[in-house]
């Protein structure tokens, strides 16, 4: 009986291994999911804004000024909701990175205006503190751009750096910029290495909310 139980237990373990706990999503995956949710909501509000403002114009042309005014107010309200959701998306992408402490920032998933604002904040903090000798800005190489491998964000970031007189070089197959900070005290942890999964995660960011070509909706996105 003991031998039978032992054999049965062995076969059970072999055929029915204990289930493993689900793998926890990393910070980047969580940030991408949160950003997707807010981008999707922003897209809905953007479509609503366009529809309402179009109806407002039509009402004005037919002489119904009250309806035109009411529809215009509703359209502007939808626009404000869109902006609020995009702001939440930006925060979901940027804040978990701790860019003001870590000396690096990943711009994947940001629209052009958002990315430039983030870079301005990033530079202002680090050029003043001079903690690191180098800084890293991940711009992406433009493979997920609506302009067919013609990057939108990287050239504008490069222009901004030149305006500020910040020396830089392209690294990681032109997907990132390594900046030199005169007077910086500490080496950048990891140097110019881009964290694992950044460029894989870009696909999820670019395809936020299931729109396979989201940049075509907001054309100044990475």
Automatic annotation (TrEMBL):
Classification via InterPro entries: DUF1771 (IPR013899), Smr_dom (IPR002625), Smr_dom_sf (IPR036063), Smr_domain_protein (IPR053020)
Transmembrane segments: none
The Smr domain, residue ranges: 105-182
Organism: Tetraparma gracilis
Gene3D superfamilies (alphabetical): 3.30.1370.110
Lineage: Eukaryota, Sar, Stramenopiles, Ochrophyta, Bolidophyceae
Protein name as it appears in the record: Smr domain-containing protein
Region (Disordered): 20-48
Basic and acidic residues bias locations: 35-48
Pfam families: DUF1771 (PF08590), Smr (PF01713)
Cross-referenced PANTHER family: SMR DOMAIN-CONTAINING PROTEIN YPL199C
């Amino acid at each position: 009986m003991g031998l039978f139980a032992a054999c049965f237990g062995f076969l059970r373990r072999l055929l029915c291994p204990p289930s493993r706990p689900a793998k926890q999503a990393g910070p980047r995956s969580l940030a991408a999911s949160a950003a997707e949710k807010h981008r999707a909501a922003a897209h809905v509000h953007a479509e609503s804004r366009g529809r309402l403002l179009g109806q407002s114009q039509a009402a004005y042309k037919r002489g119904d000024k009250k309806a035109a005014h009411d529809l215009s107010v509703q359209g502007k309200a939808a626009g404000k909701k869109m902006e609020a959701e995009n702001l939440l998306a930006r925060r979901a992408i940027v804040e978990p990175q701790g860019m003001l402490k870590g000396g690096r920032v990943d711009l994947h998933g940001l629209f052009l205006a958002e990315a430039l604002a983030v870079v301005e904040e990033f530079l202002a903090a680090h050029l003043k503190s001079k903690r690191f000798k180098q800084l890293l800005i991940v711009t992406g190489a433009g493979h997920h751009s609506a302009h067919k491998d013609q990057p939108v964000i990287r050239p504008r970031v490069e222009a901004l750096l030149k305006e500020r007189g910040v020396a830089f070089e392209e690294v990681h197959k032109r997907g990132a910029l390594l900046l030199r900070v005169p007077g910086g005290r500490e080496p950048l942890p990891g140097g110019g290495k881009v964290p694992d999964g950044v460029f894989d995660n870009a696909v999820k960011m670019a395809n936020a909310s299931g729109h396979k070509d989201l940049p075509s909706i907001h054309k100044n996105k990475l």
